């Protein structure tokens, strides 16, 4: 079946610009959800609410009871936009700076295209998911039983990515994006006069030792072949220059591709904190908040589809330490996540994700639609 992507350029461009004007953060995407619902219903779909502000629409298969799903995230970010486009965000201090307006537009355009096809062999579920930027909507959708209800065997998604040239499709078999955690560390020492440090217990000295010790975890406790990141991003403590600091707080992030590596780093961090407590006679509390699992593309599924994808545009990308809650779908069923390149130096589209000036050439959106079309062909959906 030939896909005439040029026919959809104006349509998806309009979707993108209208959605770009109304960015909303996770689980608050009320106007965004309303817009998507109106479009899907105009295509003839029955639309259902999921995960508070998310939506799903379904096209029943004629032959198989199995289904595949395509997912777009719908939330924006709390960023003051500086693109100066005429369709700039109307919600001051909020912006679609991570391309989710593009993701929604691709999936809306694809849903429209599917609605024009006379019949499909397998079911197609369109998932418009809230809160990817946090606290996470994918896990909520799975826990609500959506994949089970529609007998979804695979989920597919993509992300606009300025690290690839416009139109290139980035893919990686196996680990592609990292598992991630946030951590907070509170050190309780004993304050005193800066001129009499021997009568106090300096929390800053403890914090310095802790930071240095943490840096040895990845370099000395983890196989060099494995990828991992341990970053302390903030440190706050002390009251005045001549007072020994009593309370110190450190905040950071942990990322790894392998679950065992991830767990080992957490264990070593806790061990070091316990050791420093004894060594310096202080109290140290460390709290971890596990965030998203690692994005791991199913190797067998990718092998079965690779011959149907546009070979001239495929790029085998390196794994990256970014995080994505699409990983929850991959833990439920074999699934694939792609990167769709949007870098265009000639047009000035070079800013990174989460940048207040992030923008892209909207003609690339139909390339995302074509990718989804070829996936459907490869899986004999129609």
UniProtKB/TrEMBL annotation:
<dbReference type="InterPro" id="IPR017439">
    <property type="entry name" value="Amidohydrolase"/>
</dbReference>
<dbReference type="Pfam" id="PF07687">
    <property type="entry name" value="M20_dimer"/>
</dbReference>
<feature type="domain" description="Peptidase M20 dimerisation">
    <location>
        <begin position="181"/>
        <end position="274"/>
    </location>
</feature>
<dbReference type="InterPro" id="IPR036264">
    <property type="entry name" value="Bact_exopeptidase_dim_dom"/>
</dbReference>
<dbReference type="Pfam" id="PF01546">
    <property type="entry name" value="Peptidase_M20"/>
</dbReference>
<dbReference type="GO" id="GO:0046872">
    <property type="term" value="F:metal ion binding"/>
</dbReference>
<keyword id="KW-0479">Metal-binding</keyword>
<keyword id="KW-0464">Manganese</keyword>
<protein>
    <submittedName>
        <fullName>Amidohydrolase</fullName>
        <ecNumber>3.5.1.47</ecNumber>
    </submittedName>
</protein>
<dbReference type="InterPro" id="IPR002933">
    <property type="entry name" value="Peptidase_M20"/>
</dbReference>
<feature type="binding site">
    <location>
        <position position="100"/>
    </location>
    <ligand>
        <name>Mn(2+)</name>
    </ligand>
</feature>
<dbReference type="GO" id="GO:0050118">
    <property type="term" value="F:N-acetyldiaminopimelate deacetylase activity"/>
</dbReference>
<feature type="binding site">
    <location>
        <position position="133"/>
    </location>
    <ligand>
        <name>Mn(2+)</name>
    </ligand>
</feature>
<dbReference type="GO" id="GO:0019877">
    <property type="term" value="P:diaminopimelate biosynthetic process"/>
</dbReference>
<keyword id="KW-0378">Hydrolase</keyword>
<feature type="binding site">
    <location>
        <position position="354"/>
    </location>
    <ligand>
        <name>Mn(2+)</name>
    </ligand>
</feature>
<feature type="binding site">
    <location>
        <position position="159"/>
    </location>
    <ligand>
        <name>Mn(2+)</name>
    </ligand>
</feature>
<feature type="binding site">
    <location>
        <position position="98"/>
    </location>
    <ligand>
        <name>Mn(2+)</name>
    </ligand>
</feature>
<dbReference type="InterPro" id="IPR011650">
    <property type="entry name" value="Peptidase_M20_dimer"/>
</dbReference>
